[in-house]
Specification:
Layout lengths: L1 H12 L4 H17 L4 H20 L3 H19 L13 H7 L5 H28 L10 E5 L1 H5 L15 E3 L4 E5 L9 E3 L9 E5 L10 E3 L4 E3 L6 E2 L18 E7 L2 E10 L22
Antiparallel strand pairs: 1-10, 2-3, 3-5, 4-9, 5-9, 6-7, 7-8, 9-10
Helix pairs in contact: 1-2, 2-4, 3-4, 3-6
The structure holds FE2/S2 (inorganic) cluster.
């Protein structure tokens, strides 16, 4: 046990510059042997060594070196509950006298700054995580979003001059979704589609986030497909990915929806991943109506 403690002590003393060790190494070793070794003590020694090395690099003389020792020894003695080293009394060492009077040393300042920075980082990270993960259970994105009846939704076309009845989507920013009629000749039908397929309600709510890297695909009014501006993934009007066009691994994701008394609600807390891509010309792809927009 004592052998291990001696190895730890030697390792800690070796952190200091050679010239510093030659003058104060034995005294520091004695203090370390008397201290209970813990994280706080190790942090003290590391910061003290860093301080001593910085002073050595800047070429300060014996006064600064003595100050570094006093700074380390004061704190370590406090940990060990032992006597505080006697401060020099020469008027040539005003900074040391300030320390003896209870002022902040550079090492203490470093330590407190480090602690404050770590604490601030922890608070910011924690607050950000809570804000990101906290579900919005009442309204808005993260929970159910009620959008109104067919005419209210149709009044919000994704592209001016297009219409739900014509096969183009509405865009509802509060749900971050495109709303499409599966069969444009029909309106909303009462019911629930927990998988977002629209098989019961004739409505599909497509999440605006591209499954590749998260860009927002735009609806193209010339071909009636969605086209992602980032890497050119293409999706038909109901969000099915065209296999040959772009790197997205699947179709656009879909929110669960319900229609009650003709009123559409999109549940943005329940997302179903889009289906696998389908090759051009195969059943399941709605053909384009014209040229691309990108
Ligand atoms: S982000 Fe849409 S294709 Fe890359």
């Amino acid at each position: 046990m004592n052998g291990r403690r001696s190895r730890v002590t030697r390792a800690l003393v070796r952190l200091y510059p050679t010239a510093w060790r030659e003058r104060h190494g034995d005294e520091l070793s004695a203090i370390l042997e008397a201290c209970p070794v813990g994280p706080s003590l190790i942090l003290d020694v590391v910061l003290g060594a860093l301080d001593a090395r910085l002073r050595a690099i800047r070429g300060h003389g014996a006064v600064e070196e003595q100050l570094a020792f006093m700074t380390a020894a004061r704190s370590l003695s406090a940990v060990a509950a032992g006597p505080v080293p006697v401060a020099p009394t020469s008027s040539a060492w005003p900074e040391v006298q300030v320390l003896a009077g209870g002022g902040l040393s550079r090492r203490q300042l470093l330590r407190r700054s480090l602690g404050a920075a770590v604490g601030l980082w922890a608070v910011e990270t924690g607050a950000g995580m809570i804000g990101f993960l906290w579900p919005n259970l009442s309204t808005g994105f993260g929970g159910p979003v009620t959008l109104g009846d067919m005419s209210a939704v149709a009044a919000r076309p994704a592209v001016p001059g297009t219409s739900l009845r014509g096969g183009a989507p509405a865009y509802v920013s509060e749900a971050r979704a495109y709303i499409q009629l599966v069969d444009p000749t029909l309106g909303f039908r009462d019911g629930i589609d927990t998988d977002g397929s629209g098989a019961t309600t004739n409505v599909r709510a497509l999440y605006q986030r591209c499954p590749h890297l998260g860009c927002r695909p735009n609806f193209c009014p010339s071909n009636y497909w969605f086209e992602c501006p980032c890497h050119q993934s293409r999706y038909d009007r109901l969000g099915t990915k065209i296999a040959e066009l772009g790197p997205a691994p699947r179709g656009m994701d879909r929110f669960a929806i319900s229609v009650v008394g003709g009123i559409l609600t999109v549940d943005t807390s329940k997302l179903t991943l889009g289906p696998l891509p389908i090759a051009l010309g195969q059943p399941g792809i709605i053909p384009s109506r014209g040229g691309t927009c990108i």
